[in-house]
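Good morning,

Attaching, inline, the backbone tokens for the sequence recovery test we're adding to the shared suite. The designed sequence is right after.
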């Protein structure tokens, strides 16, 4: 390339006004091969400073979804739990246990309104009047069942059942993890992570690992652990669980999930991985045919193409933001078992709200709502 372009004293220009003219002159000096590569890259047009950001949104549909969300939530929860046909454990001896179906619905209603157990009874009375539940249980009964292991298994089945109808529209997925405070008033997780305070305060948080769809943000698989558990080892199990109900084409994740086992394991499931590399990773040569070599080669040598696919990971951050804003970023319970179930209830509520809007946007026919 001719460097005289930059040293010509006759060219008196304002860098902000004539930058496009300078770039055209430089572009003419580029070799044809390099010019062809530039044409194939995605063009980028900078937005002038101060321009207001606009987002495409069907506002009439959004208004309808928001105004009917609570009514749809009650219907989705009732139909989904009834479709599960939860078996009761009463065998005829002693005091009968509470009905797990009503307990499950009551816990989801509690999480949807982000109420404490003391303020829940009025909402349960409304739900009974609507036919959602049959029995209004006392606060102590509901709190007792919140730490039941059977409730944990039922909640996992419930949020997956609610997410399954969206398999018709979801093919791209993203994985990530975030912290949920174990008490009201704790500093938000995003303010202490990757700081010197993390080691000291991370015991005050639970960690939720998820895989979510990139179109509707529905959560397809989730796991709740302690805050000191690394997210990378759980990626393959979460993806394997997702592939049972969804046709997965691509999976994006940040550098925290980068490992040979993850990349090879994802590829063996027929999924294309897009996991961000790190500066100290050893990139194989161009002739590598392994999934590990192909992915890192694409990340290193074709960054624009890689970035187009990796950018879908932004949707999982939107998922966490919506989940915490709508249903709370903290747990009210003290025991670990109760905290896990409380977080799973938030996921059920989130998926129900996603499905309620998706039913208006797409022609979906959930099996559990056929009746």
């Amino acid at each position: 390339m001719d460097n005289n372009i930059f040293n010509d004293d006759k060219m008196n220009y304002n860098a902000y006004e004539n930058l496009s003219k300078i770039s055209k002159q430089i572009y003419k000096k580029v070799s044809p091969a390099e010019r062809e590569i530039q044409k194939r890259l995605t063009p980028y047009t900078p937005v002038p400073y101060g321009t207001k950001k606009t987002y495409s949104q069907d506002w009439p549909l959004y208004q309808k979804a928001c105004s009917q969300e609570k009514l749809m939530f009650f219907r989705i929860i009732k139909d989904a739990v009834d479709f599960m046909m939860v078996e009761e454990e009463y065998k005829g001896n002693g005091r009968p246990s509470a009905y797990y179906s009503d307990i499950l619905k009551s816990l989801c209603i509690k999480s949807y309104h982000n109420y404490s157990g003391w303020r829940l009874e009025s909402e349960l009375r409304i739900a009974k009047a609507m036919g959602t539940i049959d029995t209004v249980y006392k606060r102590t009964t509901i709190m007792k069942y919140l730490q039941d292991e059977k409730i944990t298994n039922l909640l996992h089945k419930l949020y997956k059942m609610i997410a399954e109808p969206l398999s018709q529209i979801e093919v791209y997925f993203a994985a990530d993890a975030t912290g949920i405070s174990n008490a009201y008033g704790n500093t938000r997780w995003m303010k202490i992570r990757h700081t010197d305070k993390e080691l000291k305060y991370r015991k005050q948080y639970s960690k939720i690992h998820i895989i979510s769809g990139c179109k509707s943000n529905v959560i397809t698989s989730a796991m709740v652990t302690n805050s000191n558990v690394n997210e990378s080892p759980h990626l393959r199990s979460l993806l394997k669980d997702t592939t049972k109900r969804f046709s997965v084409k691509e999976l994006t994740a940040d550098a925290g999930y980068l490992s040979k086992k993850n990349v090879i394991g994802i590829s063996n499931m027929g999924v294309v991985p897009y996991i961000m590399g790190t500066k100290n990773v050893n990139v194989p040569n161009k002739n590598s045919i392994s999934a590990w070599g192909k992915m890192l080669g694409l990340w290193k040598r074709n960054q624009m193409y890689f970035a187009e696919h990796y950018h879908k990971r932004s949707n999982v951050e939107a998922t966490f933001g919506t989940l915490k804003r709508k249903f709370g970023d903290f747990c009210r319970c003290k025991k670990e078992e109760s905290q896990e179930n409380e977080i799973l209830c938030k996921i059920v509520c989130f998926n129900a709200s996603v499905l309620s809007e998706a039913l208006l946007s797409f022609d979906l026919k959930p099996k559990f709502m056929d009746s």
